[in-house]
Amino acid sequence: MDTSELLRTPLNVFLLALLLVLTFLAAYCIRKKWLRILVRITCSIGVALSGLLLAFMLFARGKPSETTNETRNGPFKVLIRSQEFHHSGTINVDVCVTDSSSLAFPKSKQQCFLHGFDFSGLSVKWLSQRNIEIAFDCG
Fold first, then answer.
1. What is the pLDDT of residue 8?
2. Closest alpha carbon to 12 in 20, 85, 86
3. Claim: this prediction has a pTM higher than 0.70
4. Which of 123, 84, 81 shows the shortest CA–CA distance to 104?
5. 57 with 79: CB under 8 angstroms?
6. Is 96 in contact with 112 (CB distance < 8 Å)?
7. Which SS3 state, helix, strand or coil, does residue 53 take?
8. Which of 50, 69, 71, 85 could pair covalently with 17 via S-S, beta carbons 3.0-4.6 A apart?
9. What is the DSSP string of 5-33?
10. Does residue 76 register a pLDDT over 70?
11. How many helices and strands, by DSSP H and E, does the chain display?
12. With 0-12 CB in 10 A as exposed, 13-18 as middle and 19+ as buried, what is 100?
């Protein structure tokens, strides 16, 4: 797990801020004045940044704007889901194959064979019972 994974949940950010506050309070035990001041300044900046990150994580939550298209072919269908989070301009695209009777978008990674961002001119069509053609613009 890298450090970017640690900052994904609000609880982890809160615990980081709490650790920085405790370090700030523990700085009173440091005998050298310049080191004590350096620790206090560093912890204060860390707490402020953690607070801003926590506020952003809590208030920027929400559901993405999502569109789903499907192309049926006998017992199977191809689902194309496009998601845009918070009007960011970046569109996440997932293409999955599932049973025609399935109503929900598949959660299994085994059924999804394409995941990408900002595909322009994306088209999906069945060539046969077993073959699917996917095309998009390059450049």
1. 61
2. 20
3. no
4. 81
5. no
6. yes
7. helix
8. 50
9. HHTSSHHHHHHHHHHHHHHHHHGGG---H
10. yes
11. 3, 6
12. exposed
